[in-house]
Specification:
By secondary structure, the chain is of the alpha+beta class. It has eleven helices and eleven strands. Strand 1 and strand 2 form a beta hairpin. It binds adenosine-5'-diphosphate (ADP) and magnesium ion. The site of magnesium ion has 5 residues, from helix 2.
C-alpha cells in the first residue's frame, strides 16, 4: 500500500536544476534577488479530513494560513505573500456570514505578519482550502531538515499533544475540565506559528522542522534527511498540565486514556511547534533565547550516528511504539 511519501517519492520527485532546494523540506528555496532566497510552500485543508465542516469559519481562516506560516517558521523565513485556492460548496458560496468570518480570520493573522494575499483560485465542489506561502530568508541561511549532526541536542518549542488531545475530547474519547478544554481547543483551532523563533534560530540551529504530523514522524524526517539517529527521553517531552494529568499512573487503570495521551504527545500532529537541533556548545544561546522570548524551549534528546529513533521511558528502557505519525493514506 502506498504511503503519502511513497506517492511523492515515486511519482513526483525529480532532480532540480534552477532551484536551491526542491521537494523534501518544509519549503522549497529559490534564489530570487541578491542576498535573499525565497521559501515557498503549500498546504491544503480538506473538510471532514482536517477539520469538521461546522467549525467556526473565523478559526478556519486563521488555521489555513497558520499551518503555512508554520512551514515558514521551520525554514527561519519571513512570510511575505500568499495565494489562496478556495473550493466552496454551493451553500457556502451563498453564505455571506460564513465568508465574512472566514476572510476576517484569514486577514487578522495575515495582517499580524504583514502577509499580502496576491491571488488564488475560487471554484465549486467539496470544501477544500489551499494556501501557498512565499517568504524571504537571507541567502543560504534557511534552516533545513538535513543539517543535524551527531552530538546535537534536540529541542522543541511549546507544549506538544494538546491539539490531538482536543480532537480526542471532541470525539468523546476522553473528558477534560472546562478550563483544560478551552486551552486544548485553542491549540487545535488557532495555533500560532513560531515565526520569531524560526528567525532567531538562524545561525544557531543546525536543522529544524515544524511539527505538523507528530513529533516522531517529523523528527524522523530530520533524521532521514540528515542521515543520523536520535534518542529522546519521553519524560522530557513538554506537555500541558491537561495532558500530564492523563499520563498519571492512576490512568494506567483506565489504560486506554493513558495510551491515548501518549499517542497525542508523540504522534498526535497539528502541534505547529518547532523541533530543531543545536550543537551542545550553543546550549546557553538557546537558554537565553527562551528567557528573552518567553517561549518554552525544552531539550528532549540527542542526535547520534546511525539510523532510527529511540524513545526512552522513565526506566531508561526504550518504549515500544507501533506507529510514527500521521500518514494521509494509512490513517486509522
Ligand atoms: P509539510 O508537512 O512540511 O507541509 P509534507 O509532509 O506535506 O510537508 O511534504 C513533504 C515534502 O514533499 C515537501 O517538501 C513537499 O513540498 C513535498 N511534496 C508533497 N507533495 C508533493 C507533490 N505532489 N509533488 C512534489 N512535491 C511534493
Ligand atoms: Mg512542515
Amino acid at each position: 500500500m502506498n504511503s503519502e511519501f511513497d506517492v511523492i517519492n515515486r511519482y513526483f520527485i525529480r532532480p532540480w536544476h534552477n532551484t536551491l532546494l526542491g521537494p523534501g523540506d518544509d519549503a522549497a528555496l529559490i534564489a530570487c534577488k541578491p542576498g535573499i532566497d525565497w521559501a515557498i510552500s503549500i498546504d491544503t485543508l480538506v473538510a471532514e479530513r482536517h477539520f469538521f465542516s461546522d467549525v467556526d469559519p473565523a478559526t478556519l481562516g486563521h488555521k489555513v494560513l497558520a499551518v503555512n506560516l508554520s512551514d515558514m517558521a521551520a525554514m527561519g523565513a519571513t512570510p511575505r505573500w500568499a495565494t489562496l485556492s478556495l473550493t466552496l460548496t454551493e451553500t457556502l458560496a451563498q453564505d455571506d456570514a460564513w465568508l465574512n468570518a472566514f476572510s476576517s480570520g484569514f486577514f487578522a493573522l495575515a495582517d499580524q505578519y504583514q502577509v499580502e494575499l496576491i491571488g488564488g483560485d475560487t471554484t465549486g465542489g467539496p470544501l477544500n482550502i489551499s494556501v501557498q506561502i512565499i517568504g524571504e530568508v537571507e541567502r543560504e541561511k534557511a534552516l533545513r531538515r538535513s543539517g543535524a549532526r551527531p552530538g546535537d541536542d534536540i529541542w522543541v518549542s511549546g507544549y506538544l499533544g494538546d491539539a490531538a488531545l482536543a480532537l480526542q475530547f471532541q470525539q468523546q474519547h476522553l473528558a477534560l475540565t472546562a478550563q483544560e478544554a478551552v486551552l486544548c481547543l485553542a491549540a487545535l483551532h488557532t495555533p500560532m506559528p513560531r515565526i520569531a523563533l524560526g528567525k532567531a534560530l538562524i545561525n544557531v540551529a543546525r536543522s529544524a522542522i515544524d511539527i505538523s504530523d507528530g513529533l516522531l514522524a517529523d523528527l524522523s524526517h530530520i533524521l532521514d534527511s540528515s542521515g543520523v539517529a536520535a534518542t529522546i527521553d519521553f519524560d522530557k517531552i513538554p506537555c500541558s498540565p491537561a495532558l500530564k494529568n492523563k499520563l498519571q499512573p492512576e490512568n494506567t487503570v483506565k489504560n486506554t486514556i493513558r495510551q491515548l495521551a501518549i499517542d497525542c504527545l508523540l504522534r498526535g500532529g497539528d502541534d505547529y511547534e518547532l523541533c530543531f537541533t543545536v550543537p551542545e556548545n550553543r546550549r546557553d544561546a538557546i537558554t537565553r533565547l527562551a528567557q528573552e522570548s518567553g517561549i518554552l524551549l525544552s531539550r528532549i534528546g540527542k542526535i547520534m550516528p546511525g539510523k532510527g529513533l529511540t524513545v526512552l521511558g522513565t526506566d531508561n528502557n526504550p518504549l515500544i511504539l507501533k506507529n510514527k505519525g500521521y500518514d494521509h493514506f494509512s490513517a486509522q
